[in-house]
Design goal:
Blueprint lengths: L2 E3 L9 H5 L4 E4 L2 E4 L9 H10 L5 E3 L1
Antiparallel strand pairs: 1-4, 2-3
Bound molecules: iron/sulfur cluster (SF4).
Iron/sulfur cluster binds next to helix 1.
């Protein structure tokens, strides 16, 4: 499972990094995924962070 962030769409609100600190991090005004491959036990956290994104910039698949 991977999380892909559309940097063009990201508005830098920081929500994903707040709710899923193990998965997302802010670098400047854009979010980045911290992990290349998301483990099963972190899948819910990754999805939760994606769900919080107000512009749907995160695709977890
Ligand atoms: S929640 Fe969405 S818009 Fe906000 S920082 Fe994360 S990716 Fe960017």
């Amino acid at each position: 499972m991977k999380a892909v962030i559309d940097k063009e769409a990201c508005i830098g609100c920081g929500l994903c990094a707040q709710v899923a600190q193990d998965i997302y991090e802010m670098q400047g005004d854009k979010a980045v995924a911290l992990v290349e491959e998301i483990s099963e036990d972190k899948a819910e956290e990754a999805k939760n962070g994606a769900d919080q994104c107000p512009v749907s910039a995160i695709i977890v698949s």
